[in-house]
């Protein structure tokens, strides 16, 4: 299974909204990749910025897979990759 960049952003929005007690529409996410830091995201909630590292992104993806697709999997089965955009590859 492959999750698009939009689905990864949705996963992070849902996860952060649940953690912060806000609506998913109150969360803004910008994904990025850098040679030094790898995959990261900058998240804005209520005008506050927070940086997430790859393990945080994978945690959000795991929760999204379970809530949206009823798929339970392990973090070592989720890989982020950079093609035309950032995607998540989920081994089943």
Write structural notes for this entry.
This protein is an alpha+beta fold and 92 residues long. The chain has one domain (2-90). The protein has helices at 5-20, 54-69; strands at 2-3, 27-34, 38-45, 48-52, 78-82, 86-90. The strands form 2 sheets. A 3-stranded antiparallel sheet has the order 1-6-5. Strands 2-3-4 form a 3-stranded antiparallel sheet.
In short:
This protein has 92 residues and is α+β, with helices and mostly antiparallel strands. It is built from two helices and six strands; from the N terminus they run βαβββαββ. Helix 1 packs across helix 2 (54-69).
Largest sheet: 3 strands, antiparallel
Order of helix and strand elements from N to C terminus? EHEEEHEE
Task: Give me the oligomer status.
Answer: single chain
Helix content: 25-40%
Q: What's the gyration radius in Å?
A: 12 Å
What's the shape? globular
Uncertain regions: pLDDT < 50 for 5+ in a row?
none
Mean pLDDT: 96
Give the N-to-C terminal Cα separation: 8 Å
Q: Structural class of the secondary elements?
A: alpha+beta
Strand content: 35-45%
Counting DSSP E segments of at least 2 residues, the number of strands comes to 6
Sheet with the most strands: spatial strand order: 1-6-5
Domain count: 1
DSSP helix count?
A: 2
Protein name: YxcD family protein
InterPro entries: Uncharacterised_YxcD
Helix-strand blueprint:
Elements: E1 2-3, H1 5-20, E2 27-34, E3 38-45, E4 48-52, H2 54-69, E5 78-82, E6 86-90
Antiparallel strand pairs: 1-6, 2-3, 3-4, 5-6
Helix pairs in contact: 1-2
Attribute tags:
92 residues, alpha+beta, three-stranded antiparallel β-sheet
């Amino acid at each position: 299974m492959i999750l698009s960049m939009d689905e990864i952003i949705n996963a992070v929005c849902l996860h952060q909204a649940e953690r912060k007690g806000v609506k998913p529409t109150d969360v803004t996410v910008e994904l990025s990749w850098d040679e030094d830091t790898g995959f990261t995201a900058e998240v804005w909630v209520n005008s506050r910025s927070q940086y997430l590292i790859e393990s945080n992104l994978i945690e959000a993806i795991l929760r999204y897979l379970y809530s949206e697709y009823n798929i339970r999997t392990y973090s070592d089965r989720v890989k982020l990759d950079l093609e035309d955009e950032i995607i998540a590859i989920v081994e089943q």
